[in-house]
What we know:
This protein is of the alpha/beta class. It contains 10 helices and 10 strands. Helix 7 packs parallel to helix 8 (297-314).
Amino acid sequence: xxxxxxxxYNRFKNIVKGKxxxxxxxxxxxxxxxxxxxxDVISIPIPQIDLPHFKFDHDQMxxxxxxxxxxxxxxxxxxxxxxxxGQAGETPGQxxxxxxxxxxxxxxxxxxxxxxxxxEPRGKKNIxxxxxxxxxxxxxxxxxxxxxxxxxxQALKRQIASGTYNxxxxxxxxxxxxxxxxxxxxxxxxxxxxxxxYMMDVSGSMTDMQxxxxxxxxxxxxxxLRSQYNDIESRYIIHDAEAREVDRETFYHTRESGGTKxxxxxxxxxEMINQDYPLSEWNIYPFHFSDGDNWSRDDDYQCIRxxxxxxxxxxxxxxYGQVQGVYGVGNFKRVLDEAFKNNDKLVTSEIEDKxxxxxxxxxxxxxxx
Length: 369
């Protein structure tokens, strides 16, 4: 019985994960799914699933615990009121189920949904790491590696072939020759390291909703890139008229009241790369988010110069996301598009609202760089 329950439970989890995979586009825009993150597992609430429940026949006035009842009587509604603190409600409650999905599974779903190409890393190409993977089955091995399913299948085939299998008494007893064991082979993979440098405008024109959009999109960018690299770091830069490095918590919850000078963020980013991330060892991914308002045309030119002369040369890919807010949107995306229209190392995206996150991720990560 316990085994049957476990099988049913695992089957139910697989059905729920299939639902997540089918409706991933909707979940990409949700922020509540990030509430309970572990080291490599995330809980996703599924409010669409109704849990089974009993429905009582309210037309009957008698039943067990509510007066005299006969054997076989329908359990019905009593005529008294409870003595509890609150009155019973008449509307059904909403049931929310949380299913745990590993970040590796989530990245796989994202790659399939958006048809993302595998990234071809640079750096550390001559260094490899060895990893053992169980990829086949053999006839000998330690009991700790016995494959019970394959052993049972082999015993069943033997009994059917020999005519000893009785379908009315389906007992299958494996013999020594039926036992099958997991076998492994050593796979060598290049050891690749990457850094994601997030930059965000935190001036007075950037609202909490715009920052929420950045937070959601950054989660999915992180999830995909971490599935492509063995070792990955995340760094955070905020800017208004000045820029500085901060921790993750400060990055998503800081709001300033000053103006915007985008080049200051690019300068801090460049300094960070030069100090900590040699190109021979690191794959570098700067992501910049703002509402597109910049201090002046002169600063636009300064940003273009920094990108052309240094940043694009050092980065695998440089991505700029322009998040539309209640105050409208600036023209920095247009400035970049005009300056780098033939350079595929710089990708820009306009993110009008949460629904646009889906297409923005595909624009950023669809290059396979």
